[in-house]
Amino acid sequence: MKKAIIITDKNFIIGEVDKRIFGSFLEHLGRAVYGGIYQPDSPFSDKDGFRNDTAELIKELNVPIVRYPGGNFVSGYNWEDGIGDNSTRPQRLELAWGATEDNQFGLNEFTDWAKKVGTQPMMAINLGTKGVNEAKDIVEYCNHESGSFYSDLRKKHGYSEPHNIKLWCLGNEMDGSWQIGHKTAEEYAKLACESAKVMKWVDPAIELVVCGSSHMLMDTFVQWETTVLEHCYENVEYISLHSYYSNYVDDTADFLANTLQFDAFIESVITICDYMKAKKRSKKQINLSFDEWNVWYHSNGEKIDKWSKAPHQLEDVYTFEDALLVGGMLISLLNHADRVKIACLAQLVNVIAPIITSDTGAWRQTIFYPFFHTSNLGRGTVLKSIVKAPLYDSKNFTDVPTVQCAIVQDEENKKLTLFLLNKDLKEDIEITCDLRQFRNYKVAKSIVFNHDNPKAVNTEVDPYRVVPQEKKFADFEDGVLIMCLEKHSWSVVELKKI
Ligand code: AHR
Predict the structure, then answer these.
(1) What tens digit of pLDDT does each residue of 316-327 get?
(2) Residues 358-374: pLDDT tens digits?
(3) Is the CATH number of domain 2-11+383-497 3.30.230.10?
(4) Closest ligand 1 atom to the C-alpha of 244?
(5) What does the angle CA 409 – CA 448 – CA 328 come to, to the nearest 5 degrees?
(6) Tell me, what's the pLDDT at 105?
(7) pTM higher than 0.70
(8) Residue 69 — very low, low, confident or very high, per pLDDT cuts 50/70/90?
(9) Could you tell me the CA-to-CA distances from 49 to 63, 65, 79, 313, 349 in Å, in that order?
(10) Is 60 one of the catalytic residues?
């Protein structure tokens, strides 16, 4: 059997996990909102029209923030269309995705729903077709107590207390030519900086995310971040990153190696932030918001009926191997806990999502599970893990470690949890990990997520085809943890103090 070792130490601290790295994203797109979380005519819905079955699965995922309302959608959105009397809300042509938006769900419904599922809103503003004025107005509507036009309008709409939304995104993917109101770095940077300034004048307690590149392969990557931070450094707290991966050519080894690019993207953006910190002689550190990440490609090329309402759109049916890459990206996020403070799995329901709904209920896609494990068990302090495992080369990557690992210590509950990915498609790997500092711990839980068929999926008729299992594959004796990781598998080992 192949062998690997993992070296760690309780003093090798990367950083505290900011729980917001287990965030997600809901866009007015396809059936994410309508038919996903909100469906007044469904037997699964509560009196407010929110689907209970979906809400239960979201609670299982333990998602502390949800980014809303887009995405590309937000760059053409008028937030005032979605407030006040439902019967007078306008129907609009939604240009980003070619559908009709009837605005029955808007900002206030979203904050109500967020309370129901126990999450916090992360609100994006429109910097495509709108600007400084709207940026100021929406913060006033949401966060100002009373005694001004927009705060009193909120009260009139039945919300006497401010929503107090803490986290705001300054537009979405403004570097992309597909974006409504696409801008050059200079144009965007100036608008973002001025919007940030007035938003903080209205509420100095908010935190802001400025748009970075839509992905690492954009021609403007680096130049975009540098320009944006040159203008906005002192006005924002975070810069965004987005990445989606695909396996069009059916090369699973190469597909799983994409975590190397994911890591490189994070590390490049950290470098740019710190370059700008030095250039500006600033004491402030800009952190990262990886606010769109996932696998996305199964639904590409689909056709929808133009201007239909809530069509089936971007409903990727995820395979088992997709879940492995999602697990790998979660490990990468944890291992950058010192700088990645926010991350959003894109998206949450129906649209490239871990949860799918139909008229018969809601079910968990394969990618649900690694997120569920890390979000529920990966809270605490990340310890650095040095992995010495066999390497492989693939079409686009060299020296890809077959094993990826993140180790999270939860001192309060006296737990140590290891998240592990074996990317070897042919062989199991035996791992030895010296944990003598945790000698008085024992294995409390060991979970394997695997399937013989990397293309296996969960569907409405077979929703439990690909599920994790509790299984004994880890022995802990005299402070040495020995684990046998099955080929192409995701594993979790939780140690607990005796
Ligand atoms: O998540 C789907 C889309 O991907 C978002 O609307 C956009 O921001 C990104 O390109």
Answers:
(1) 999 999 999 999
(2) 999 999 999 999 999 99
(3) no
(4) 4
(5) 65
(6) 98
(7) yes
(8) very high
(9) 21, 21, 20, 21, 16
(10) no
Which is the closest atom of ligand 1 to the Cα of 214? 10
Cα–Cα distance between 308 and 312 in angstroms, integer?
A: 10
Average of pLDDT values for 324-335? 98
How many whole angstroms from 75 Cα to the centroid of ligand 1?
A: 11
- Mean per-residue pLDDT for 43-59? 98
**Which residue has a Cα nearest atom 3 of ligand 1?**
71
Q: Tell me which residue has its CA closest to atom 2 in ligand 1.
A: 71
* Residue 238 contacts residue 289 (beta carbons within 8 Å): yes
Q: What residues flank ligand 1, with Cβ below 6 Å?
A: 27, 70-72, 172-173, 292, 346-347
Burial label for 193, CB within 10 Å (0-12, 13-18, 19+), is buried
315 classed as catalytic = no
pLDDT of residue 281: 98
- Pure H helices in 149-220: 149-156, 185-202
pLDDT at res. 5: 98
pLDDT of residue 155: 98
Domain boundaries, the chain: 2-11+383-497, 18-377
Q: Which residue has its alpha carbon closest to ligand 1 atom 6? A: 71
The superfamily CATH assigns to domain 18-377 is: Glycosidases (3.20.20.80)
